[in-house]
Amino acid sequence: MRQPYFSVAAKYADENRKEEFYSTVEEVLLKVFKEGFNKDTLRAGLNSLEFRYREADFGSYPPGLMYGLQALDSWLYDDELPFIHIEADETFKSLRKKIDTDYFEQLIKKGLIDNTHKSKVTVVPKVGLSYKEEEELNKKLQEYKESLSKEELLKLVQDTKELLAYQEEEDTPESLECIPVLEISDIKKEAAPLINEEKSIGTAKSLYHEVYTNGIDYARILFDATNIPAKYFPYLSLLKGMIGLVNTKNYTYEELTNKSLIETGGITNAINLYENHINREEYRVTFEWKGKCLEGDLDKVFNLFEEMILTSDFSDEKRNKELIDEIKSRNQELMMSAGHTVALQRAMSHVSKSAATLDVISGMSAYRLVEKTGNEYEEEKAILAENLANLCKALFVKENIMFDFAGSKEEYEEFAKQAAIFMSKLPEKGESGEKFTPVITKENEAFTTSAKVQYVGVAGSFGKNNLKYSGALRALKVIMGYDYLWNNIRVKGGAYGCMSGFSKGGEGFFVSYRDPNLAKTLEVYKNIPEYVGSFEADNRAMTQYIIGAVSELDTPMTPANKALRSLSAYMSNISYNVLKQEREELLQTTPGTIRGLEPYMEALLSDKYICVVGNKEAIEKEEKIFDRLSPLFLA
Q1: Would strands 283-294 and 628-631 be described as parallel, antiparallel, or unpaired?
Q2: What is the pLDDT of residues 273-318, one digit of tens each?
């Protein structure tokens, strides 16, 4: 598309208020044009973009690939300008100079307010539409079938048989030989090192990762949330979504956001759960603060940490309601687009205490709390404000703290100094009380939607039978994804995708993505042990599976990801020798090794913990499978 476009969308909105939505957008644009942008907001936005540009953190994607895609953004439209989005120094310099002019306001006027090329689109769901369309399709197909002669019907049956045979047919050795393949000997035998140096800052532990970061400091504060009072524990998910976005002692939330993006590369938070590799029953939940900045700016990061952690104000009922509604909307959007994640996480929550805990802080139970708080806000608003304030007092204390840093040795010294100053301002201990204990329920669940597809998940434990995790399970995951599950669920079943996973803690799952089937998919899962027990593959195929598994282990890592991998191993009590053994087991995997995993699959699937997210009619047809059916969104 030669013309760039700008869009504003309201999701899960009331159709009857669409004119109000349209007029609000136009009024806001006109107001911005007349009164002007907040200059600090412009600086914050531009600084954030430039920081990301210079950091060049593409996650697990190779930088070369991402730079190539960026080049296409301009190269497709002008043969002379392939690098303008890669060599963007001049672009940022030019835009920075224009902040104190009316350039951005005029851009709003020309590109949006005075633009005559506009469209207004309303998409409204209709209850029962997918079921009606399915019935119409079935009727049409039946009429077509009745119009066929006996010979045409026989030919249709024969064509279907030939299609199924083609889908099951393996490629010939001659065809496969056309594709070059690495040898196992080409793969490095050593696991990537863990870069951890244990230190201390006062009475607190500190972990240092000496990695080259191109002049960027990565600071992290971890607060152990495992032992906070049970009554506050479920509110961790709400605290994550709200703290940093409310007023503080010295700043409004708008000013705080601007200050964060102007002075740093961003301040964010996360909730993590670390399972103890040695003892599966032990785990830690942490509330973590992350800040990144250019070298020399760590004092600014810690000033912002202090402002948000110690002075956040949850008394503004209007702002709290706005944030709850935003969290609810984001969750709903994610749950609809990634229903497989909902299905597998919920199924896993019936398997182990750690997974049940994750459900409370980031899964379906966490969403239900958001939903209830938003839907019953008048009754819940005082409880929300009180619990968030008390949670901060119980959580953000010295006895819960640990520090983590990635950057140069010189910068670590400054980090330690700033961390000590910050810690001196924290209370020693927080409120004590009965510790949160997850409740593991034994049930199969389904969550209904108006979508035409399902996300079918099943989970279980092989560790319960004292079967130890092996690196060979990584190869099995690839085999599942590119052979058995691929052929039966995607090729034959018509699903968009299929996934599996096996944890060091002894749990595993299988899940489908945008799947037109339900019972058929569960039958495919049921036959996994038989497939694994009779598995055969020649040397070439086995090598490909192992390479596929190694590629996940050897994903390119940014400096921040190297530090995070090392931190995660440390928190989970995973040593380098454990990673080394896992890699050795993977590289030594043979078809016989895979066949030896049949008891693992039998144990896992014997639990029969099922969770499905999908079409209401399709689920109700198979309701005998489930102990409980409920709408994905209650309101």
Answers
A1: unpaired
A2: 999 988 878 999 999 999 999 999 999 999 999 999 999 999 999 9
Tell me: pLDDT of 132 over 90.
Answer: no
Quote the Cα angle for 423-429-434, to 5°.
140
Q: Are 267 and 304 in contact (CB under 8 A)?
A: yes
426-454 pLDDT, tens digit each: 999 999 889 999 989 889 999 999 888 99
Q: How do residues 486-496 score in pLDDT, each as one tens digit?
A: 999 999 999 99
The sign of the torsion formed by the CA atoms of 537, 538, 541, 546 equals positive
pTM, two decimal places: 0.88
The SS3 call for residue 449 is: strand
3 state SS for 562-627: HHHHHHHHHHCCCCHHHHHHHHHHHHCCCHHHHHCCHHHHHHHHHCCEEEEEEEHHHHHHCHHHCC
Contacts for 524 with CB less than 8 Å, ≥ 6 apart: 484, 485, 488, 489, 493
Long-range contacts of residues 363-367, Cβ cutoff 8 Å, at least 24 apart:
364/447, 365/234, 366/234, 366/237, 367/328, 367/331, 367/335
Q: Are 538 and 181 in contact (CB under 8 A)?
A: no
**Distance from CA of residue 24 to its chain's centroid?**
32
Kindly compute the dihedral angle of the four CA atoms of residues 148, 153, 156, 157, in this order, to the nearest 10 degrees: 160
